[in-house]
Design goal:
Low-confidence stretches: 1-8
Number of helices: 12
Radius of gyration: 21 Å
Strand order of the largest sheet: 1-2
Shape: globular
Length: 314
């Protein structure tokens, strides 16, 4: 086979890619992506600040929202260095170790977001189906344990990925499909047997995204059953309205994620442009929209933002 074969002692470098066919518009693309970064980072920072300062938001639902905001900031900072280098400075080379580190953090925060959405659905289930036991079932110590569990699980499932890739030989051009390192992209580059990598990758996707989405769906089945038992139509709508923000967040996270996974696994003949656009939607849209959704739907956050905008002392 042609090309240079790399082993564990001679690690390869990778070439990052912008949007194919739009090489002459890279600065405009960075301007767009830069705006998304600013909205995401500032929006999530505001959510964290408001939850910290507003006493009425010191409850489990908003603690989990704060964890989601920290996670979204992490996603943004994970991709920022190479996106900036690729679109603004035309620096497309990335070392093996840097690529593995970026891949680790991108996937760590992705799996963590799925876990956060799961514990948020449990919060909604308890609040609606067992409201009298809400404060005892979700006391602060349990919220902390659940949050640590989400972080620990994410670390444990992602940690082996760089190690499994490092043992393989690389003999191809090592050109990535994106301006950042993703495991579904990297897994197609080695020349050796990637059976273990594929099996482990499938296992962690099923045991995280698959299991989480199934449990979230099950929690909403129980929530709907409880809601439809309420006699008053007005009360049913009021109760369901408390779930709208979380449902929107689940949809904007899982739909792009499924699109990226399906095209990476089965879309070998799909144009590269499609892979790139789907990954951009997956990594940029949820961190940007999550604070917007919760700001619109949460009265306390909306009120605090209004006071900050009009410059009142608080």
């Amino acid at each position: 086979m042609g090309g240079v074969i790399y082993n564990s002692s001679v690690l390869p470098t990778f070439t990052l890619t912008g949007l194919p066919g739009l090489e002459n518009s890279q600065h405009w693309l960075f301007l767009l992506l830069g705006t998304l970064y600013i909205v995401s980072i500032v929006g999530n920072a505001l959510i964290l600040f408001i939850v910290k300062e507003e006493q009425s938001l010191h409850q489990p639902m908003y603690y989990f929202l704060s964890l989601l905001s920290v996670n979204d900031v992490g996603v943004s900072f994970s991709t920022l260095p190479t996106v900036l280098a690729t679109f603004c400075f035309h620096l497309r080379k990335i070392s093996f170790d840097s690529c593995m580190a970026q891949m680790f953090f991108i996937h760590f925060f992705s799996f963590m977001e799925s876990g956060v959405l799961l514990v948020m659905s449990f919060d909604r289930y308890v609040a609606i189906c067992n409201p009298l036991h809400y404060t005892t079932m979700l006391r602060d110590s349990r919220v902390v344990c659940m949050s640590l569990g989400v972080v620990t699980r994410s670390f444990c499932v992602v940690f082996p990925l760089p190690l499994l890739l490092k043992r393989l030989s690389f003999c191809k051009a090592n050109v990535l499909s994106h301006a950042y390192c993703l495991h579904p992209d990297l897994i197609h580059l080695p020349c050796g047997d990637i059976t273990i990598n594929n099996i482990f990758g499938l296992f962690i996707v099923i045991s995280t995204f698959g299991l989480d989405s199934a449990l979230i769906l099950f929690s909403y089945v129980l929530i709907l059953r409880s809601v439809f038992a309420i006699a008053s139509r007005e009360e049913r709508l009021k109760t369901l309205n408390t779930c709208v923000s979380h449902l929107c967040t689940v949809i904007i996270f899982y739909i792009p994620m499924v699109g990226v996974s399906m095209t990476a696994r089965y879309g070998r003949h799909v144009p590269r442009f499609v892979h790139t656009v789907l990954s951009l939607i997956y990594l940029f849209v949820p961190p940007m929209l999550n604070p917007v959704i919760y700001s619109i739907k949460t009265k306390e956050i909306r009120r605090r933002l209004g006071r900050m905008l009009v410059g009142k002392k608080f």
